[in-house]
Design goal:
The complex is a heterodimer of chains A (about 220) and B (about 180). Chain A has helices spanning about 10-15, 50-55, 55-60, 65-70, 75-80, 85-90, 95-105, 120-125, 205-220, and strands spanning about 35, 40-45, 105-110, 115-120, 125, 130, 135-145, 150-155, 165-170, 175, 185. With about 220 residues, chain A is of the alpha+beta class. The N and C termini of chain A lie far apart (about 40 Å). Chain B is of the alpha+beta class and about 180 residues long. Chain B has two domains: about 1-75, Beta-grasp domain (Ubiquitin-like (UB roll)); about 80-175, [2Fe-2S]-binding domain (DNA polymerase, domain 1), CATH 1.10.150. Chain B has a five-stranded mixed β-sheet with strand order 2-1-5-3-4. The chains are: A alpha+beta (about 220), B alpha+beta (about 180). Chains A and B meet through helix 1 and helix 5 of A and strand 4, helix 4 and helix 5 of B.
Chain lengths: ~220, ~180
């Protein structure tokens, strides 16, 4: 399923993904709205990250989402990339799935069988995996109004790179990203408890746990 | 699709990347291809006026849209575009491989922020890699380009009532006028 393509196209270019069919939804009409719903903000499948970044409605109703989207890659990427695409792609180091989880939002998936709502807590199944069925399209993500205080903090090697580790605070709730196969909820007192992050060239598991503790302290000091 | 103002048929092969289509089918080799996964920024072009990575788009997706490449910035070639002029004046390039991408990104940046703060300049060029210059001369070129474009740009206020604009204006007050090299 091709929307913004800013994650899928690199996978295709590298032949890491070789789908037999590719469905481009960019010409589907009426799927690019950002609107107020149930006291929060609904972002449809073709709404670009840059549009969410510039949206007055998002800045007012869900400033946490405004702050988070600015951390996604670079503006040129955000001109094309979509919020729903980031969520459906479900990269463990991605900001937006963690924001959806911290806020307790949901997505709406549609297929010929009908429409269903999937809560953030039920959505993320593994690395690049969600509970959205193959015949379903993620048509909308819904973010509740951000509670106060909120914060999103991450550490990356270079500006715009994927985060080595990151934390999202929404009121008393805390979600972590980059330290598990999916974004995870954690307690602010001992956020690294039970985590077994992977290590790579950029960060050891111990360094990722350290980052989680330091970033959580910063997020809750505010 | 329209490329630099001229209508072209879409490629027959739906797998064709926009970057490859521009270079191999249309002969517009000013758009460079570096990493092919969206990191280096060399292949940046304007799609309906906004900068995008042409290596992360299929050419058929540009059907019905306006594409502007580096060749389309100064049609005729008699006079450089102000952003190109600024890169020339400030030595914002050495080997030149990254330059078309930088120029297109900066055109987009200055359309969004006609009087960018230092932070906005850094943010605006952060998605393009240059291995020669060390970026200092490129940052100067962006500031210079904003000055060159200023007489051509209407006052930023009509751009809209977004919350960010008043901040842009107040912080850009001393910027464009005073600190250019």
């Amino acid at each position: 399923m091709l929307a913004g393509g800013q994650s899928l196209m690199p996978l295709l270019n590298f032949r890491l993904a070789r789908p037999s069919h590719l469905v481009d939804i960019n010409r589907v009409g009426g799927l690019d709205r950002i609107y107020e719903r149930d006291g929060g903000v609904a972002v449809q499948a073709l709404a670009r990250q840059a549009a969410v970044e510039d949206s007055e409605l998002v800045a007012r109703a869900c400033p946490l989402l405004s702050a988070a989207v600015r951390l996604v890659a670079h503006r040129v990427i955000r001109n094309r990339g979509t919020v729903c695409g980031s969520i459906a792609h479900s990269d463990p180091a991605s900001e937006l799935p963690a924001v959806l989880l911290a806020l307790g939002g949901h997505v709406v998936a549609r297929s010929k069988r009908g429409e269903r709502r999937i809560e953030a807590g039920e959505l993320f199944a593994g690395v690049f995996e969600t509970s959205i069925a193959p015949d379903e399209l993620l048509v909308e993500a819904w973010f509740p109004k951000s509670p106060k205080p909120f914060a999103i903090l991450e550490e990356s090697r270079r500006h715009g790179d994927f985060a080595l580790a990151g934390v999202v605070r929404a009121g008393d709730r805390l979600a972590l990203f980059g330290v598990a196969p999916t974004p995870v909820l954690a307690g602010a007192k001992d956020p690294a408890r039970g985590l077994q992050p992977s290590g790579d060239l950029e960060a050891t598991p111990e360094f990722r746990l350290h980052l989680v503790r330091v970033l959580t302290d910063k997020a809750f000091a505010a | 699709m329209k490329v630099n103002g001229f209508a072209h048929p879409a490629p027959s092969d739906p797998r064709r990347l926009l970057s490859d289509h521009l270079r191999h089918d249309l002969g517009l080799t000013g758009t460079h291809v570096g990493c092919e996964h969206g990191v280096c920024g060399c292949c940046t072009v304007l799609l309906d006026g906004a900068p995008v990575r042409s290596c992360l788009m299929l050419a058929v997706q540009a059907e019905g849209h306006d594409v502007t490449t580096i060749e389309g910035l100064a049609p005729g070639g008699s006079q450089l575009h102000p952003v190109q002029q600024a890169f020339h004046e400030c030595h914002g390039l050495q080997c030149g491989f990254c330059t078309p991408g930088f120029v297109m990104s900066v055109v987009g940046l200055l359309a969004q922020h006609p009087h960018p703060t230092e932070e906005q300049v850094d943010e605006g060029i952060a998605g393009n890699l240059c291995r020669c210059t060390g970026y200092a001369s490129i940052r100067r070129a962006v500031t210079r380009a904003a000055v060159l474009l200023a007489p051509l740009t209407p006052d930023p206020s009509p751009l809209g009532g977004e919350g960010a604009n008043p901040a842009d204006r107040s912080s850009s007050g001393g910027e464009g006028a005073g600190t250019s090299p």
